[in-house]
Amino acid sequence: LYAEVRPVQSYPGVWCHRDNLDIIIIRETPQGFLAARNLYKGNGEFMPDRDTVLSLRVLTRHACERIARFACDYSLRLSRKKITVAHKGNVLRMGDNFFLDICREVAKNYAHLQINDEYIDTVANKLISHPEDYDVILTTNMYGDIVSDEAAALVSSLVPTANFGEHGAIFRPIHEALLEMAGKNIVNPVPAILCAVMMLEYLGADAAASDLRRAVGAVLSEGRVKTADLGGKASTDDMTGAVRK
Question: Roughly what angle, to the nearest 10 degrees, separates helices 120-129 and 141-153?
Fold first, then answer.
């Protein structure tokens, strides 16, 4: 699995930073600044002495090309028009510009897509001030980890997450996976249900995915069934039953 995809979409009936948010964040996952993933053996962080820590980031041409192609193909499949490559090439001049240059090269094969780039700190700022500027955001591992969580907060964290590879995919909620709430029947199941929507789309069951997405939207819009995170008292079972009905 090498491509994490997080759609950030506003729904009527729940708090959202904007009413019309519709952003997809695509993040390369096996490499970058997550140290445990970078080496055949060992860890990407080490201490040459007791007062010094070194953290290693790895970027390869193969992985950068692969995530860039994925982002372009995924965007076209969903009729998206613009990809913003988020980076910090003014500081990490070799690594981030390496990633950016490869993304630009790959994008030359996708004439119908508009490709631009912004510094990651600009993206973090504009997700609050001007989120409507973004369609698809493509970035490396740690940047994507941070801004996708920031973006999720704009829609009450009602977001699914999917991880795609060449031969399979995993669909799982992130923000509601709170272990201390396990077994208490209080967690909002909507992110997990939206993961099922993405899974159905991946399997080609578009009609079922559309029905399920509409059902989630209808329940949230009505506002009669709300779990604690949305300011209500409904249980996990109550929300699930409302969506099923």
Answer: 10
- Per-residue DSSP letter, 227: B
**Residues ≥6 apart with Cβ < 8 Å to 37:** 29, 30, 31, 44, 141
20-24, 29-33, 144-148, 211-215: the lowest-pLDDT one: 29-33
CA distance 217 to 232: 17
| Residues with Cβ within 8 Å of residue 161, at least 6 apart in sequence | 4, 5, 6, 148, 171, 172, 173, 174, 195
What is the identity of the amino acid at 207?
A
State pTM to two decimals. Answer: 0.93
Q: What is the pLDDT of residues 164-204, one digit of tens each?
A: 999 999 999 876 456 777 888 999 999 999 999 999 999 99
Cα–Cα distance, 97 to 64 (Å, whole number): 11
CB contact at 8 A, 63 and 171? no
Distance CA 190, CA 200 (A): 15
